[in-house]
Amino acid sequence: MMLPKDPNEIFTKEVLDDILPPQLSDDFFEAMYGDAAEGAYNIRLAFSDYEPEQKKLTFELQLHERPDKCLACNLTYGLPSVFSRHPVLNIQGMVEKIDAHLGEEVSCTGWELGRTQTPASDMHSIPLIIQLD
Description:
Elements: H1 7-10, H2 13-19, H3 23-33, E1 41-51, E2 56-65, H4 73-76, H5 79-85, H6 91-100, E3 108-113, E4 117-120, E5 123-132
Antiparallel strand pairs: 1-2, 2-5, 3-5, 4-5
């Protein structure tokens, strides 16, 4: 099972910003705290990996620290569980949009969020692992 083209060509910055619009970070914090300015990070979607043998696509929900805010580790490690069911983020809706970009030969059959990772002090990421068929 192969994707119709290179996933880096499918999931450009424009497509990823359409799937998870930059404004969604403010909407998320508005829903959580009642004030978007309370948010410590901006959430961005990035393509990470394609494993055709495993029938798996991996994206990252990247948490980029906002200026003059603190991206504290103890606050981000519980986020996969929050993100997976939060209606503003709507991970299932993101996966459906990703699926729409894959073409008719391949489809998303399931997804899960992995554990928070810390690739940099000012950026944490949560893997979004999508099973394909």
